[in-house]
C-alpha cells in the first residue's frame, strides 16, 4: 500500500515575507483593519515590518485564506501580487536586475528562487516561438493555492514588465484554477487573453524577448551578487528530499517522473538517489505519491477538470487507478473530496 505523503520540515518550506509585504495595505484598501485580521489568524502586524522576516509557506497560505474569508474579496491574492516584483526578492532580485539580458535574468530567477521561497518553483520553457514562465506549488497541504497562484503570476508579469519595458505584452496568461465569478480585475491588470482550468500558473510571451538586452546590466556587480548568493546556497541549500520536491511537480506534469529520469537531473544514478533519500528517512515513491497527491488535490479544489483528465495528467492508466491511489492517500474518492471542499467553500461565502 502506498505511504501517506510525508511532510517536509518548516526549514524546507520557509519564504521571505517580501512578496507579501502589500497585504496590510490591501486589507486597508478593502476596509479591513489589518492588525485585527492578522491577530484573528494568529499573526502579529510586526511580521510585515521587515521584508526579510520569514514565514512558513503553509502558514502564509492559511493567512491568505483567512484574509479572503474576512474581506470577501476573491481576488485578494491578485491585489497583493500586483504590488510585488523584483524589489520583493531581495538579493536575488538584484541579481536578476543586473543580468545582461532577459533570458539570463529569468534563468537566474528559476535557479535561485528556492533561496527566497520554499514550497514552490518557477520554471522557464520554450515551445516554438513562445516562452512559458510558470509557477508551481509543491508544498503539501497548502490552502488558498488559487490566491497564491494569482499573486505569483501578477508578480511575474511585473518582473517581465520591469525587465522588458512598456513594449512587452503577454501572449496569454494561464491560471491553475477555475474562472472566477468576476474576471474584470484580471483583465484590467494583465491586458491579455486569460486561460483558466490549466495545469500550471504561467505567463506566455514571445520567445524573442529572452534575447532582449537589459540597459542596467552590470557584470562586476552581478559577479559580487552571485558570490553572495552562492554562499547562501552553501549555507541554506536544500537537502536531497527538498531538491527532489522542487523538480517533481514539473517532472510529473511532463511525464518525466521515473526515478532514473529524476536522478539524471542531478547527474547521479537512480540507486544513488534512492540511498540518499533513504538516509533522510524517505523514499522516491513516497515523494512521488506526495507530489501526485498535491497536484490532484489542487486540481480537484481549484479547477473544473474532470477526474479522468486529472488521471491522464498524472499518467495513470485510467480514472479507476487514480481513484484507488487517491483513496489510499486521503481515505475518500476524488469525487467525494471535491464535493466536501466545494461545500466548505460555499459555507465560507
UniProtKB/TrEMBL annotation:
Domain (HTH araC/xylS-type): give its ranges: 242-340
Q: Which N-terminal residues, if any, form the signal peptide?
A: none
* UniProt-recorded Gene Ontology molecular function terms: DNA-binding transcription factor activity; transcription cis-regulatory region binding
List keywords of the entry alphabetically.
Answer: DNA-binding, Transcription, Transcription regulation
Q: Which organism is this protein's natural source?
A: Thiorhodococcus mannitoliphagus
Mention any one GO cellular component term assigned to this protein in its UniProt record. cytosol
Q: What is this protein called?
A: AraC family transcriptional regulator
Cross-referenced InterPro entries: AraC-type_N, Homeodomain-like_sf, HTH_AraC
Amino acid at each position: 500500500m502506498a505511504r501517506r505523503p510525508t511532510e517536509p520540515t518548516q526549514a524546507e518550506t520557509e519564504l521571505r515575507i517580501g512578496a507579501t509585504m502589500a497585504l496590510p495595505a490591501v486589507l486597508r484598501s478593502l476596509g479591513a483593519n489589518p492588525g485585527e485580521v492578522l491577530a484573528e489568524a494568529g499573526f502579529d502586524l510586526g511580521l510585515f515590518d521587515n521584508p526579510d522576516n520569514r514565514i512558513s509557506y503553509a502558514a502564509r497560505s492559511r493567512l491568505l485564506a483567512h484574509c479572503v474569508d474576512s474581506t470577501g474579496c476573491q481576488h485578494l491574492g491578485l491585489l497583493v501580487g500586483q504590488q510585488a516584483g523584483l524589489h520583493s526578492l531581495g538579493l536575488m532580485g538584484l541579481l536578476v536586475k543586473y543580468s545582461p539580458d532577459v533570458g539570463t535574468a529569468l534563468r537566474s530567477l528559476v535557479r535561485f528562487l528556492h533561496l527566497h521561497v520554499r514550497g514552490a518553483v518557477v520554471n522557464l520553457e520554450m515551445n516554438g516561438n513562445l516562452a512559458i514562465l510558470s509557477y508551481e506549488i509543491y508544498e503539501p497541504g497548502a490552502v488558498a493555492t488559487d490566491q497564491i497562484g494569482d499573486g505569483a503570476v501578477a508578480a511575474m508579469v511585473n518582473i517581465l514588465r520591469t525587465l522588458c519595458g512598456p513594449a512587452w505584452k503577454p501572449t496569454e496568461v494561464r491560471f491553475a484554477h477555475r474562472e472566477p465569478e468576476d474576471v474584470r480585475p484580471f483583465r484590467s491588470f494583465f491586458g491579455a487573453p486569460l486561460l483558466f482550468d490549466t495545469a500550471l500558473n504561467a505567463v506566455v510571451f514571445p520567445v524573442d524577448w529572452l534575447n532582449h538586452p537589459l540597459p542596467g546590466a552590470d557584470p562586476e556587480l552581478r559577479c559580487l551578487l552571485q558570490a553572495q548568493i552562492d554562499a547562501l546556497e552553501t549555507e541554506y541549500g536544500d537537502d536531497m528530499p527538498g531538491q527532489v520536491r522542487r523538480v517533481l511537480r514539473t517532472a510529473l506534469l511532463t511525464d518525466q517522473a521515473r526515478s532514473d529520469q529524476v536522478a539524471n537531473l542531478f547527474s547521479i544514478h537512480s540507486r544513488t538517489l534512492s540511498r540518499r533519500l533513504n538516509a533522510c528517512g524517505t523514499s522516491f515513491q513516497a515523494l512521488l505519491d506526495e507530489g501526485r497527491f498535491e497536484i490532484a488535490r489542487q486540481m480537484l479544489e481549484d479547477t473544473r477538470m474532470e477526474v479522468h483528465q486529472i488521471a491522464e495528467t498524472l499518467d495513470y492508466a485510467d480514472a479507476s487507478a487514480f481513484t484507488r491511489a487517491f483513496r489510499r492517500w486521503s481515505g475518500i474518492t476524488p469525487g467525494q473530496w471535491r464535493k466536501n471542499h466545494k461545500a466548505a467553500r460555499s459555507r465560507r461565502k
